């Protein structure tokens, strides 16, 4: 079924983009993949996802949908008459599936990222490997319960839990290869071993699964970029502060010779790194950036400055600013979603 108005903005290595591709393939839809540069982020990405500025972004005609799980559900609902259903028909089963999707993202994505960020520090990786192994044991139990003896988590056909868990499978293999350590033990997880083989061979999946050796090459390049950033003591200060606060962030490697347009534009006075971007805010000088991070994220763990722990009026200021900015954003959202009516839900009744 050809749908010429379907476009997916993403990157070949992203498991979140892969989720959307699998969903589209399961529905038998024809779509165009637009490869996102990310470094720097394209105008299309910044314009279509101004809130999170992340991939994937799905374009259905003039409609723009962001966040992989939301996109997959949208595809399932819009093309409900196409082939199989990705989400369970029963409300309780749907709620259950969403719970395990959340669990996978919380446990697996965090652990995979942490192992990559740990670089060559084997000690730092240990706890994350243990977490992944424990999560695999849990998923073995979940599969046996949810599949009810059938092929997939969703039964006879691939469902949303299969898509979300399966999208991370290639990256788990990358972690194993790069660290020379087995995470997935077929003997301990026989049901998942059989599931992985069947899932990877499905027509909707095998054509879009990234090759492990290419992912390894990409991951190695990421490690080099992170190592280069860590080699700069001033950039390292900022990274440590962000890590202490438990924040997810992107490192953009600066060429320096010659200096990039981004650096010259964002720090025109000193023309030096690091430069920290928080939405449309630009902060320069490592000590100033560290203080900014501590003051802005005071509600998060690890106060970096002694006075920040006091939660005085000065420490509260960033939160008020954040709430004010969020209110401005919600004002825009309301005006767009309500279409002049009483509520966000485009009607006169309360809406989810």
UniProtKB/TrEMBL annotation:
<dbReference type="InterPro" id="IPR004045">
    <property type="entry name" value="Glutathione_S-Trfase_N"/>
</dbReference>
<keyword id="KW-0808">Transferase</keyword>
<keyword id="KW-0216">Detoxification</keyword>
<feature type="domain" description="GST C-terminal">
    <location>
        <begin position="90"/>
        <end position="234"/>
    </location>
</feature>
<dbReference type="GO" id="GO:0004364">
    <property type="term" value="F:glutathione transferase activity"/>
</dbReference>
<dbReference type="InterPro" id="IPR036249">
    <property type="entry name" value="Thioredoxin-like_sf"/>
</dbReference>
<feature type="domain" description="GST N-terminal">
    <location>
        <begin position="222"/>
        <end position="301"/>
    </location>
</feature>
<dbReference type="InterPro" id="IPR004046">
    <property type="entry name" value="GST_C"/>
</dbReference>
<dbReference type="Pfam" id="PF02798">
    <property type="entry name" value="GST_N"/>
</dbReference>
<dbReference type="InterPro" id="IPR040079">
    <property type="entry name" value="Glutathione_S-Trfase"/>
</dbReference>
<protein>
    <recommendedName>
        <fullName>glutathione transferase</fullName>
        <ecNumber>2.5.1.18</ecNumber>
    </recommendedName>
</protein>
<dbReference type="InterPro" id="IPR045074">
    <property type="entry name" value="GST_C_Tau"/>
</dbReference>
<comment type="similarity">
    <text>Belongs to the GST superfamily. Tau family.</text>
</comment>
<dbReference type="InterPro" id="IPR036282">
    <property type="entry name" value="Glutathione-S-Trfase_C_sf"/>
</dbReference>
<dbReference type="Pfam" id="PF00043">
    <property type="entry name" value="GST_C"/>
</dbReference>
<dbReference type="InterPro" id="IPR010987">
    <property type="entry name" value="Glutathione-S-Trfase_C-like"/>
</dbReference>
<dbReference type="GO" id="GO:0006749">
    <property type="term" value="P:glutathione metabolic process"/>
</dbReference>
<dbReference type="InterPro" id="IPR045073">
    <property type="entry name" value="Omega/Tau-like"/>
</dbReference>
<dbReference type="GO" id="GO:0009407">
    <property type="term" value="P:toxin catabolic process"/>
</dbReference>
<dbReference type="GO" id="GO:0005737">
    <property type="term" value="C:cytoplasm"/>
</dbReference>
<feature type="domain" description="GST N-terminal">
    <location>
        <begin position="4"/>
        <end position="83"/>
    </location>
</feature>
């Amino acid at each position: 079924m050809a749908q010429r108005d379907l476009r997916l903005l993403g990157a070949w290595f992203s498991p979140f983009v892969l989720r959307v591709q699998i969903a589209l393939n399961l529905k038998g839809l024809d779509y165009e993949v637009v490869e996102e540069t990310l470094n720097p982020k394209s105008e299309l990405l910044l314009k279509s996802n101004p809130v999170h500025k992340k991939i994937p972004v799905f374009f259905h005609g003039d409609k723009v949908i962001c966040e992989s799980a939301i996109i997959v559900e949208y595809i399932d609902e819009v093309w409900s008459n196409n082939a199989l259903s990705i989400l369970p028909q029963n409300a309780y089963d749907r709620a259950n599936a969403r719970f395990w999707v959340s669990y996978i993202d919380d446990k697996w994505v965090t652990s995979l990222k942490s192992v990559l960020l740990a670089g060559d520090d084997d000690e730092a990786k240990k706890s994350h490997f243990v977490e992944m192994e424990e999560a695999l044991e849990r998923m073995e139990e979940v599969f046996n319960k949810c599949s009810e003896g059938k092929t997939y988590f969703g039964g006879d056909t691939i469902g949303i839990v299969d898509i979300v868990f399966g999208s991370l499978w290639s990256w788990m293999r990358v972690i194993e290869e790069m660290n020379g350590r087995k995470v997935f033990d077929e003997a301990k997880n026989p049901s998942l071993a059989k599931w992985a083989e069947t899932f990877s061979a499905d027509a909707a999946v095998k054509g879009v699964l990234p090759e492990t050796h290419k992912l390894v090459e990409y991951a190695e390049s990421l490690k080099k970029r992170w190592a280069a950033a860590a080699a700069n003591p001033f950039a390292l200060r900022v990274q440590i502060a962000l890590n202490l606060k438990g924040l997810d962030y992107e490192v953009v490697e600066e060429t320096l010779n010659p200096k990039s347009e981004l650096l010259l534009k964002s720090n025109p006075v000193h023309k030096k790194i690091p430069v920290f971007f928080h939405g449309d805010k630009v902060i320069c000088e490592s000590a100033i950036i560290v203080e900014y991070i501590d003051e802005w994220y005071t509600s998060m763990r690890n106060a970096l400055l002694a006075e920040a722990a006091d939660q005085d009026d000065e420490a509260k200021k960033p939160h008020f600013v954040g709430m004010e900015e969020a209110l401005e954003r919600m004002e825009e959202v309301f005006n767009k979603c309500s279409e002049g009516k009483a509520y966000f839900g485009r009607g006169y009744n309360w809406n989810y």
